Amino acid sequence: MVAETRLRTDDLIAPLFVREGIDEPQPIASLPGVMQHTRSSLRDEVRQLRDLGIPGVILFGVPAAKDANGSGAWDPDGIVQMALRDLRDDFGDDLAFVADLCVDEYTDHGHCGVLDGHGSVDNDATLELYARIAVAQAAAGADIIAPSGMMDGQVGAIRAALDGSGFEHLPIMAYSAKYASALYGPFRDAVDVTITGGGDRKGYQQDYANAREALEEIRLDIAEGADIVMVKPALSYLDIISRARAEIDRPIAAYHVSGEYAMVKAAAERGWIDGPAVALEQLTAVKRAGADLILTYFARELAELL
Ligand code: PBG
C-alpha cells in the first residue's frame, strides 16, 4: 500500500535482433533466452510480446554482409527496413517500433561511424549517413528513431533529415548519456561486432568517471530536438538517471544492457542468486531512480511475472 515505485509491463521495451540470411533463429550464448531472429520468428516473438502487454520493441539488425560505410543500415531492403515493414503489416499501431540507428552492426571495422585516413571515426561524414538511415527507417515504418552512435550533432542532423522528408511527426529517442562501458560484450556477440585492432569507443562514448558531462550531453541533445533521452547502461549509472530526472522534464529512458542481463543469468544458472527476484529488484531500482522507460532483455520474463 505504501510502495512508492511499482514496475509495470508498460514501462518495458524489449530489444530484439533480426539477422539476414538465416533459416532458423540462432541462440546467443552470452544472452541466454535471447535470439537472433529470422524475419518470420521475429513476427512470432513480437506477437507474443504484444499479447503480454509490452508497449514497444527496439530493433537491431545483423546484415549478411558488412562494408566500410555500413550501407546495409540505409538500404531500403536492409534487414531492419524489411523487418519494420513486416511488423507494421502484422501489428499496425499495437505497439511502438523503435529503430536503433547506428552503423556498427553494418561496418566491417565495427565502429559507429565511417573512418578517416588515420583510422579515426569521422564525426561529420558519419552524420550524413545517419540522416540517410533515419529516412530509410522512417519510410519503412519506424515509430521512433533511436540514434546510439554518440556522434556530436547526430540528433540535429537526424531531426533535419526527418523534417525534410515528411517525417516531422516522428520522435527521436537519443542515447544521450551512453558510456564507454565494458558491459556491452554480449550485445557485440549478438550483432557479430568486433572492433578492429582491439579498438574501443572511448573517442565518442562517455568516460564513466564523469557525471556532469552526461548532463551536458543530455541538454545538448534536447536542444537539437531529442524527445526522449537515454542513460546507458542503467545500474552503474543510477546517479545519472536520478540527476537527469531532477533537471530534465523530458521522458527518460534507461538501457539495462546485455552485460547487466548476462551477469544475472549466469549467477542464476549456478544457483547463486534467484534470477527473477534479482531482475525485479534491479529494474525497480532503475525506475525508482527516475526512468520512465526501461529497455531490457528481461522484458518478456518480467511481463510474465508481473
Ligand atoms: C551501438 C549499440 C550498442 C548497444 C546498443 N547500441 C553497443 C556498443 O555501443 O558497442 C549495447 C546494448 C547492450 O549491451 O545491450 N549500436
TrEMBL record:
The keyword Secreted does not apply. InterPro entries: ALAD (IPR001731), ALAD_AS (IPR030656), Aldolase_TIM (IPR013785). Keywords: Heme biosynthesis, Lyase, Porphyrin biosynthesis. Pathway: Porphyrin-containing compound metabolism; protoporphyrin-IX biosynthesis; coproporphyrinogen-III from 5-aminolevulinate: step 1/4. GO terms for molecular function: porphobilinogen synthase activity; zinc ion binding. Gene3D superfamilies: Aldolase class I (3.20.20.70). The keyword Lyase applies. Pfam families: ALAD. One of its GO terms (cellular component) is cytosol. It catalyses: 2 5-aminolevulinate = porphobilinogen + 2 H2O + H(+). Its EC number is 4.2.1.24. PROSITE patterns: D_ALA_DEHYDRATASE. One of its GO terms (biological process) is protoporphyrinogen IX biosynthetic process. NCBIfam families: PRK09283.1. PANTHER family: DELTA-AMINOLEVULINIC ACID DEHYDRATASE (PTHR11458:SF0). Belongs to the ALAD family. This is Delta-aminolevulinic acid dehydratase. It comes from freshwater metagenome.
